[in-house]
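Handout, page 2. Input:
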Amino acid sequence: MSKDLSDSANRKKLKKSSFALPEQEKYPIPDIEHARNALARVAQHGSAAEKKQVRAAVEKKYPSLKKDD
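Output:
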């Protein structure tokens, strides 16, 4: 996909399920590149609860990004 999702028109085209936090439409994860970016952004700016939610959403949609503990 690699769309510029900073453009509001492109973000509005995404389904709610394409966001790690769909109720707030934050951290878009329509493809694996955006999922990696969402993990990086939430690590920088997210609360502990948001980090947990984003990690869970990314791992559910992209099991290959599952973090080994």
